[in-house]
């Protein structure tokens, strides 16, 4: 292998080891990770209930283009189903159920963030950007980290 490629490979491996040492399970422990997962899944569950139980007279003009793409109760059932299945997956460590459900929540929250940012771009003012940022950084990235942590737990359970 040429010297520059060896150097690059060594750097990548060093970076990977550094990332592995800061994995969520390593930093706060498995029980702490489980607690954060339950909390994040509860937030998704609550959002699902909120969408399903929304009064009929609520104006949909405050919703993003992505939220308006489906009926609100459909979004509600998506959040509700994914969160319940993800929670159940915490008790079945030999299957990557929770990792997959967190991954689905990442996709939904990223879509919501993109829709909210598209709505902000179509306005004359910059109002509404914090919702998109909240969905992207407060929800999507949290679920991305939890999905990765769940995959690690699943791999460890398979190795046992």
Run of helices and strands: HHHHH
Q: So what's the overall shape?
A: flat
Radius of gyration: 19 Å
Mean pLDDT: 83
Query: Helical proportion?
Result: over 70%
Structural class designation = mainly alpha
Q: Tell me the number of helical segments per DSSP (H or I, 4 or more residues long).
A: 5
Enumerate the spans where pLDDT stays under 50 for 5 or more consecutive residues: none
Main sheet specs: none
When the domains are counted, the total is 1
How far apart lie the N and C ends? 36 Å
Residue share in β-strands: under 5%
Task: Write out key terms for the chains shown.
160 residues, flat, mainly alpha, 5 helices, single chain, 76% helix
Task: Give your account of this protein's structure.
There is one protein chain. Helix content is 76%, strand content 0%. The protein is built from five helices and no strands. It is an all-alpha fold. It is flat, with a radius of gyration of 19 Å.
What's a concise summary of this model?
With 160 residues, this protein is an all-alpha fold. Helix content is 76%, strand content 0%.
SSE topology:
Layout: H1 3-21, H2 24-52, H3 72-89, H4 97-121, H5 129-159
Helix pairs in contact: 2-3, 2-5, 3-4, 4-5
